[in-house]
């Protein structure tokens, strides 16, 4: 909200410097959006306080905080010269809550007086003529957008508020042609469209220097529809800024009276009552405030008299006192006040948060509820980093893959970005490209990992949507896939060793295809390994059996023995080796030491490392070997 | 025979003690000693012994005697061999230490060492503070329902913050990617019994056009406390302690009213700019203060909707965007680079 300080001072007689005034506004909840220039404050917009989009609204809070009186602008309810005679027909009654109109005849449209022009210009609105300037002035002053139109330009003396027909078009005041649809509220007279309701007018009925008779309206609309329509049509202006917020319909009356006074003063003519469409009056909210609640929430005691003074200066009306509290009527412009704590907020805010003392929590800490999986994934990160891998975080949003029909890809319905309209089903897709950046930086041999989620769905209900906690690792293949896959396997072996996950086996499976193996411990699938990468499922990894074999205080006797077996040349050896290892607890390690291919067979030399507390006899070793080589 | 055996063993022992073991304590002599020859001489002893035996007794008895001799002699021999190993190593080190074997002044490439993502590092720093103060880390789904992302947080339908165009929907209007970590707060308040003390680090998503500072996904860090007697005083003290921990004891905070739908009263927190000491500079965009986070007392309606009696319990919540903090700390200029698009670790 732009607040020219000279204008602000019309309502509150404040002696402070612009900088000090800005500091008070900051404490009240309105920070500066930009540095102060030419005695004009640019305060941020807040979603809740529609009255902070008016200078009077800002002045009211400032006056309350500074302990100064508020000088409200005067309206005028003079004798009406009669009936305006312009018919108001509201057909879209779900989109219009109130449509308050007055007719003026015999006005003289001229340039605005200097003070008016200067104030609008300080705010940032160009001056047009006295009538248009008055509607803008009252909008900025009180927060109610208004709209004046030249009745001589109407073919019918009526305004119809209805939904647009799909395909209807209108040219806005900015000269833009806009296509409308059934969700758009329009103002029409006869066959002509004369405005998009609550959003923008049309030049067709605009007030100019030849205008003498005008109709003035102040409307209250369905703010959610205004928001949607203005976004859809991409129209952002001073009107929308206000009509998309929750304004109370009562404000139309205050504003139209104020505008009436200014029009009669500055443009002359006579005023005529016209229809005030307001079928369902919205009553003012009544609420109770318990003094104790202030202490319960704010931790500070505030004197009842101070409470009363603050509330009254903010426009609350004290209806009566209740035991240890007040019964209040919430002012119409405070549409944000929903619960008692909002009134508490007002009292604490005006008293300034800086005055609330600090107090450390002294209660004993509650029970620790950090999920085991969180700590576990942290540990996994540490191990992978210790193994020389870099952690990266990549965007889980990816482009929807039309060809992917079987991973249960989740597509977003409304992404602004067609490159990011789905959720990843694997981290590999988003992590692998990072290796290219390492190559660009000429950093060789990169090994990367990410801990994050992958997503898929099996149906249309929320329960059918799955998030899978995943640890992905990728290594650079710049020196060939053999070196890469050796690295991957070495990292995994060390990773499992550090976690104490033993008896891991790698199995080929038709389900995962070539150059991929599934990682198991017993029947638990821990993940997958590929030539340049691995995927691990944290939840299963957490469930895997673990032992701590790395600390040992007895001397073990080690013996190494080789055995040679003949197998089919294309046989995947992992499961067989895992089986050999599992055949005796005295076998600590099993590796292939050598292999020799002849035709469709190959001879493999398997190196067994035996470990035991007592030195093993020859016979025992031979027995284990015999059991292994037995067909 | 017995006597001959004793004699050889004694001779072996003497030689071992005097000429070999003594070297362990005498570095000077060790450096000068010819360990090779010494070893040969000493270990020759058993073979001379066996010749003594074979000269004196019949062949039939030889095998049995040899075994006997072996049993008596082997432990000594094993010890001697181990001692020689020690001596050889020690001698090598002594000689190496005297000679410039290696140019230790040479620079060499570092061995592989991994690095945690900057965001993980900042999360851990924050966690370390809060876990010390009795907070648990809590998590919730990234794919959320409107119930937890909006309604339980006092954001009814049609509230501007629930604007469908600002959220990424999987199925409108009920299933979406969470737009803030407050959704996890709503889950925690629903699932746990007070007293509650939690922090929630996590990914959030918004339907944004991408830019240097806006990403469709970003990180937030949320804190939630619910107990009897919790007030704004506790919130202020908690945030001040946390900021001093993170940014140093000279940190100055400013507390001001600020509206957030899920809290009432709401509170904004700024830190006095350390670059200009509050005067105003480019870093703080001339304000003299940096906006750090949003916070407040958990909304009456939120507590109620999550099944906690707001007359019995009160609580506070705070939430901050992590990315700007991370980018500042690690001098990353573009959020898109931070998340996959362009940071590498040297």
UniProtKB/TrEMBL annotation, chain A:
Top-level enzyme category: ligase
Cofactors named for this entry: Mg(2+)
Designated name of the protein: phenylalanine--tRNA ligase
UniProt keyword list: Aminoacyl-tRNA synthetase, ATP-binding, Ligase, Magnesium, Metal-binding, Nucleotide-binding, Protein biosynthesis
InterPro entries for this protein: aa-tRNA-synth_II/BPL/LPL, B3/B4_tRNA-bd, DNA-bd_dom_put_sf, Phe-tRNA-ligase_IIc_bsu, Phe-tRNA_synthase-like_B3/B4, PheRS_beta_core, tRNA_synthase_B5-dom
Domain B5, residue spans: 282-358
GO biological-process terms attached to the record: phenylalanyl-tRNA aminoacylation
Membrane spanning residue stretches: none
Enzyme Commission code: 6.1.1.20
PANTHER family, per the entry: PHENYLALANINE--TRNA LIGASE BETA SUBUNIT (PTHR10947:SF0), PHENYLALANYL-TRNA SYNTHETASE BETA CHAIN AND LEUCINE-RICH REPEAT-CONTAINING PROTEIN 47 (PTHR10947)
Any GO molecular function: ATP binding
Lineage, highest ranks first: Bacteria, Katanobacteria
């Amino acid at each position: 909200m732009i607040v020219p300080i000279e204008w602000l001072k019309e309502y509150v007689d404040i002696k402070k410097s612009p900088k000090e005034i800005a500091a008070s506004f900051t404490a009240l909840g309105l920070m500066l959006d930009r540095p102060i220039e030419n005695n004009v404050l640019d305060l941020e917009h807040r979603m809740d306080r529609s009255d902070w989009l008016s200078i009077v609204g800002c002045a009211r809070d400032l006056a309350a905080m500074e302990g100064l009186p508020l000088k409200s602008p005067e309206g005028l309810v003079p004798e009406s010269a009669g009936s305006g005679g312009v018919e108001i027909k509201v057909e879209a009654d779900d989109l219009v809550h109130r449509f308050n109109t007055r007719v003026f005849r015999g006005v003289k449209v001229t340039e605005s007086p200097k003070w008016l022009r200067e104030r609008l210009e300080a705010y940032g609105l160009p001056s047009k003529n006295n009538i248009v300037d008055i509607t803008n002035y009252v909008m900025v002053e009180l927060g109610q957008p208004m709209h004046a139109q030249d009745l001589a330009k109407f073919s019918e003396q009526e305004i119809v508020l209805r939904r647009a027909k799909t395909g209807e078009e209108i040219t806005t005041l900015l000269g833009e042609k806009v296509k409308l649809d059934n969700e758009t509220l329009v103002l029409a007279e006869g066959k002509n469209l004369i405005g998009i309701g609550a959003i923008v007018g049309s030049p067709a009925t605009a007030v100019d220097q030849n205008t003498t008779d005008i109709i003035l309206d102040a409307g209250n609309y369905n703010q959610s529809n205004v928001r949607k329509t203005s976004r859809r049509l991409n129209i952002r202006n001073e009107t929308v800024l206000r009509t998309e917020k929750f304004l109370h319909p009562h404000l139309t009356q205050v504003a139209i009276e104020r505008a009436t006074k200014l029009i009669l003063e500055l443009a002359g003519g006579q005023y005529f009552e016209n229809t005030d469409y307001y079928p369902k009056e919205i009553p003012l909210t009544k609420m109770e405030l318990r003094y104790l609640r202030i202490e319960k929430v704010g931790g500070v005691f505030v004197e009842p008299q101070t409470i009363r003074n603050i509330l009254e200066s903010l426009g609350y009306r004290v209806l009566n006192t209740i035991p240890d509290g007040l019964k209040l009527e919430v002012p119409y412009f405070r549409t944000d006040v929903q619960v008692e704590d909002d009134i508490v907020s007002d009292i604490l805010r005006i008293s300034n948060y800086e005055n609330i003392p600090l107090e450390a929590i002294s209660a004993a800490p509650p029970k620790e509820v950090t999920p085991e999986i969180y700590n576990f994934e942290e540990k996994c990160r540490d191990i992978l980093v210790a193994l020389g891998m870099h952690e990266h975080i990549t965007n889980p949003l990816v482009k929807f893959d039309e060809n992917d029909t079987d991973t249960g890809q989740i597509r977003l319905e409304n992404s602004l970005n067609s490159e990011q309209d789905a959720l990843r089903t694997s981290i590999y897709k988003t992590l692998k490209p990072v290796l290219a950046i390492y190559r660009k930086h000429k950093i060789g041999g990169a090994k990367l990992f990410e801990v994050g989620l992958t997503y898929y769905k099996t149906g249309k209900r929320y329960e059918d949507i799955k998030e899978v906690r995943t640890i992905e690792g990728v290594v650079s293949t710049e020196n060939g896939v053999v070196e890469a896959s050796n690295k991957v396997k070495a990292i995994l072996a060390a990773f499992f060793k550090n976690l104490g996950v033993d008896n891991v086996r790698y199995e080929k499976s038709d389900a995962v295809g070539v150059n991929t193996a599934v990682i198991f411990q017993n029947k638990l699938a821990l993940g997958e390994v590929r030539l340049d990468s691995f995927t691990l499922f944290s939840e299963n990894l957490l469930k895997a059996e673990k032992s701590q074999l790395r600390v040992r205080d007895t001397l073990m006797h080690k013996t190494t023995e080789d055995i040679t077996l003949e197998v089919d040349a294309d046989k995947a050896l992992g499961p067989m080796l895992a089986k050999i290892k599992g055949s005796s607890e005295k076998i600590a390690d099993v590796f292939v030491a050598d292999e020799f291919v002849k035709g469709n067979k190959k001879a493999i030399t398997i190196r067994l490392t035996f470990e035991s507390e007592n030195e093993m006899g020859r016979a025992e070793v031979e027995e284990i070997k015999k059991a292994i080589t037995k067909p | 025979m017995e006597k001959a055996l004793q004699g050889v063993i004694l001779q072996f022992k003497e030689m071992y003690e005097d000429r070999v073991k003594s070297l362990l304590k005498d570095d000077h002599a060790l450096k000068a000693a010819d360990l090779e020859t010494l070893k040969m001489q000493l270990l020759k002893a058993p073979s001379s012994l066996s010749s003594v035996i074979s000269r004196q007794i019949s062949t039939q008895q030889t095998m049995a005697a040899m075994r006997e001799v072996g049993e008596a002699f082997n432990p000594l021999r094993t010890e001697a061999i181990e001692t020689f190993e020690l001596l050889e190593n020690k001698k090598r080190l002594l000689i190496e230490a005297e000679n410039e074997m290696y140019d230790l002044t040479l620079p060499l490439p570092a061995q592989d060492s991994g690095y945690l993502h900057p965001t993980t590092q900042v999360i851990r720093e924050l966690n370390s503070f809060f876990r010390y103060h009795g907070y648990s880390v809590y998590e919730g789904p990234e794919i959320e329902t409107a119930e937890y992302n909006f309604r339980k947080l006092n954001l009814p339908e049609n509230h501007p913050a629930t604007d469908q165009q600002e959220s990424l929907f999987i199925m409108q209007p009920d299933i979406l990617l969470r737009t803030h970590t407050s959704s996890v707060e709503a889950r925690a308040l629903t699932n746990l019994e007070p007293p509650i003390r939690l922090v929630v680090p996590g990914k959030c998503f918004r339907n944004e056009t991408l830019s240097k500072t806006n990403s469709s996904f970003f990180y937030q860090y949320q804190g939630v406390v619910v107990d009897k007697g919790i007030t704004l005083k506790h919130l202020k003290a908690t945030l001040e302690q946390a900021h001093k921990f993170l940014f140093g004891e000279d940190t100055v905070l400013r507390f001001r009213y600020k509206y957030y739908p899920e809290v009432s009263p709401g509170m904004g927190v700024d830190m006095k700019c350390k670059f200009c000491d509050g005067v105003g500079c480019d870093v703080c965009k001339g304000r003299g203060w940096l906006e750090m986070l949003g916070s407040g007392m958990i909304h009456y309606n939120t507590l109620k909707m999550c099944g906690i009696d707001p007359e019995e319990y009160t609580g506070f919540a705070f939430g901050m965007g992590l990315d700007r903090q991370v980018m500042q700390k690690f001098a990353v200029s573009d959020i898109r680079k931070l998340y996959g698009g362009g940071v590498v670790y040297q």
